[in-house]
Amino acid sequence: MIGTLTAFLITYWYYKSAQAMGKNPLSSAGLGFLAYLIPCVLWTVTVTPGLRDAVDHNPSTLSGLLVNYAYIVVGAACAIGIKLKHFKAPKL
Predict the structure, then answer these.
(1) Half-sphere exposure of 74 (CA within 13 A, CB side)
(2) What's the pTM?
(3) Which domain holds residue 19?
């Protein structure tokens, strides 16, 4: 649920930023969604299984939260990085 809300917020953020800069808002919103989704899926498929195994051997609330929600932080960080590059102000 939190991951879905984050994806919608990032998509909306890209959309509004594109409108403000005069870029195509629909393609920018799609870029924002994919900039979040692809790293999330890659993290979930590659890193999360190893983290879950580590948590199974040493369970705690903090490490459980880390495993369950780390993909959101990774996806959001990637989306922020791509946004900073995509919406860079042109040099005059």
Answers:
(1) 17
(2) 0.82
(3) 2-86
